[in-house]
Amino acid sequence: MAEETIFSKIIRREIPADIVFQDDQVTAFRDISPQAPTHILIIPNKLIPTVNHIAESDEALLGHMMVVAAKIAKQEGIDESGYRLIMNCNKDAGQEVFHIHMHLLGGKNLGRLIG
Ligand code: DGP
């Protein structure tokens, strides 16, 4: 059984976060340390520690995260200017919180993916 992270507390609204969207499957909130004018994390309400733990039965959930990401990008007014979606997995990608999350970054030119 995977250990809960601070993100489970955000989902349950036990600690404060700037939540921009929530439904029965996912929660989206502004990153505490934004790397771009828009920096939002989209996470499943269910705890999945890393991308390696995603099961075939999670396919619809992951698809829903993408749909929500696109809706939020529109809401933020960056759908036409552009944005980047990133999911980090484990050490070499710099994953810090072991509850999968999709970073939605935009609002400026983000440059090349790998510098
Ligand atoms: P990653 O490196 O992909 O695991 O990114 C984790 C992100 O989570 C990082 O950009 C900072 C953000 N983060 C960590 N703790 C909190 C928190 O308590 N609240 C919010 N809003 N964001 C957090």
TrEMBL record:
- Enumerate the spans annotated as HIT domain: 6-115
- Enumerate the active-site residues: 101 (tele-amp-histidine intermediate)
Annotated signal sequence is: none
The family database entries (InterPro entries) matched by this protein are listed as: Histidine_triad_CS, Histidine_triad_HIT, HIT-like, HIT-like_sf
Identify the Gene3D superfamilies for this entry: HIT-like (3.30.428.10)
In chain numbering, where does the motif Histidine triad motif fall? 99-103
Q: Which domain of life is it from?
A: Bacteria
Query: Example GO molecular function term?
Result: catalytic activity
Check the record and name the PANTHER family matching this protein: HISTIDINE TRIAD HIT PROTEIN
Q: What is this protein called?
A: HIT domain-containing protein
Its lineage opens with: Bacteria, Pseudomonadati, Pseudomonadota, Gammaproteobacteria, Orbales
